[in-house]
Specification:
By secondary structure, this protein is mostly helical. Helix content is about 80%, strand content about 0%. It has one domain: Flagellar protein FliS (Four Helix Bundle (Hemerythrin (Met), subunit A)), CATH 1.20.120. The protein contains five helices and no strands. The longest helix has 28 residues. This is Flagellar secretion chaperone FliS.
């Protein structure tokens, strides 16, 4: 019980003290976590149909997070790159809707892989910014 409270407090504090760039990274991580849970539940659902409820809940959560990431894009400042990311987030959403409707794990795995690549690129960009000259606050254009 106490461990859960400490973990909850730690998560809350890490969110409150995170930079804008780190908050985006936390969103990526939360979406990837939901996708992993959904994929595993989908794989086990034929043996236990109750798992489909988990699939639906976790995919819905991931879609909301992806929509939030998409909403933080600055299409004016980000130019073609931001527009491409906007389209990519749309693609992720369509694939997750398909996965949920057809109860298939392959589209979930695809989005998980692609979003993981974007997450890793974002993380690397943050790491490089930390080691270079300080710059103004990051705005999510990726």
């Amino acid at each position: 019980m106490y461990a859960q409270n400490y973990a909850r407090t730690y998560r809350a504090n890490s969110i409150l003290t995170a930079s804008p760039g780190q908050l985006v990274l936390l969103l990526f991580d939360a979406a990837l976590n939901s996708l992993a849970i959904a994929r595993q539940a989908c794989d086990h659902a034929p043996a236990d149909p109750r798992q489909y409820e988990i699939v639906n809940a976790q995919l819905t959560k991931a879609q909301k997070i992806i929509a939030e990431l998409q909403g933080t894009l600055n299409l004016e400042a980000g130019g073609d790159f931001a527009r491409t990311m906007h389209q990519l987030y749309d693609y992720y959403d369509r694939r997750l809707v398909e996965a949920n409707l057809r109860k298939q794990s392959a589209p979930i795995a695809e989005v998980e892989r692609l979003l993981g690549e974007v997450r890793n690129a974002w993380s690397e960009m943050l790491r490089q910014q930390e080691t270079s000259v300080p710059s103004p606050a990051l705005h999510h254009v990726a």
